[in-house]
From TrEMBL:
Signal peptide: none annotated. InterPro entries: APOBEC/CMP_deaminase_Zn-bd, CMP_dCMP_dom, Cytidine_deaminase-like, dCMP_deaminase, dCMP_deaminase-rel, Deoxycytidylate_deaminase_dom. Belongs to the cytidine and deoxycytidylate deaminase family. It holds the Pfam family dCMP_cyt_deam_1. This is Deoxycytidylate deaminase.
Length: 177
């Protein structure tokens, strides 16, 4: 007996429905990338895709390269802000932008959380033209309001992904709704 996964499709004859669509494909890649994050509270994944549907870059929220992340707190609260993750963690979107030397002009960002204003600025400067996000749990935070303003002014299209999401289960780490 092989341990390899089996592909199951409901209607093998219907080529319109026997595969996942582009948005499902790229958001699933962003979700999978998020599971690489060591943040126990919010794991964020990002995938940047060309207008030819080619993956240009991936990223997730993590501590900067070369920094021993066992020495950095992952806490949300602490005696001072310096004892929290916030001043140190590199956001998924910024990592995805920095993780490639490819030209990102005109590309689309798939991201599991609506970008903060700092990421929004990087998205704009990189020439990314469209942002498709999954979760919007910080919708009312000032930085999310600033992001929406920035995207609107810069002509970056944003839309929430409302499609199907995969259930990914590695046992000790999983993604489920
Ligand atoms: O745009 C973003 N991209 C991104 O990667 N993050 C990361 C930073 C933190 O590691 C985590 C948010 O943590 P928390 O939900 O515990 O406040 O998500 C957070 C935002 C903005 O919310
Ligand atoms: Zn951010």
């Amino acid at each position: 007996m092989s341990n390899l996964p089996k592909v199951i499709v409901k209607d093998k004859e219907d080529i319109r429905t026997n595969h996942i669509n582009w948005d499902e494909y790229f958001m699933s890649i962003a979700i999978l990338s998020s599971l690489r994050s060591k943040d126990t509270s919010t794991k964020v994944g990002a995938a940047i895709v060309s207008d030819e549907h080619k993956v240009l870059s991936l990223g997730y929220n993590g501590m900067p390269i070369g920094i021993d992340d066992s020495k950095i707190p992952w806490a949300r609260e602490g005696a001072s802000e310096l004892d929290t993750k916030y001043p140190y963690v590199c956001h998924a979107e910024l990592n995805a932008i920095l993780n490639t030397e490819r030209r990102l002009k005109g590309s689309t960002l798939y991201v599991t959380l609506f970008p903060c204003n700092e990421c929004a600025k990087a998205v704009i400067q990189a020439g990314i033209k469209k942002v498709i996000f999954l979760d919007d749990k910080y919708h009312d935070k000032t930085y999310s309001i600033a992001s929406r303003k920035l995207f609107e002014m810069a002509g970056v299209e944003t839309s929430q992904y409302l499609g199907r999401v995969p259930l990914i289960d590695f046992g000790d780490v999983k993604y489920e709704l």
